[in-house]
Amino acid sequence: MKTAQLTLMAAFIAIGVIGATFFWFPTGIAHAFPVQHAISIVSAVLLGPLPAVIIAFGIGLIRNLLGLGTLLAFPGGMIGAILAGLLYRWQPKTASAITGEIIGTGIFGSLLSIPIARLLMGQSVGMLAFAPGFIISSLSGSLLALLVLPKLKHLETRLFND
Known about the structure:
mainly alpha, Arp2/3 complex 21 kDa subunit ARPC3, globular, 2 strands, two-stranded antiparallel sheet, 162 residues
């Protein structure tokens, strides 16, 4: 089972990096990367909170190393992933994971991005500067997750129960 879980985690990281390369759009001062948010939701549902955070960190790290992202990928992605996983664990419904992703990324992630932008990136931004973009990004990722997750839940049963 561990091999299947690690393989799925690696695949999600690869899909997140590739998806961020080809599928993004501007949202004010930030960019929306819906694939990363969809993967946070899907991995939270299929694998749990800790693997979801590891996947979000892996996607953010590789994107930054390749010059495809900024440091803002870490707070939004990781907080959204862990909150999605925790809320899904508390109440195992896709809506719980989506709510966790949107609140974690859109509110907590955007607020945590302000000191990161100021201290590490030299950008002076207002209190809610990132919130609209992060919310739009996580909402679009949530819609993508709603389309993909029903197919992957069936796959999960076959992967982890054989």
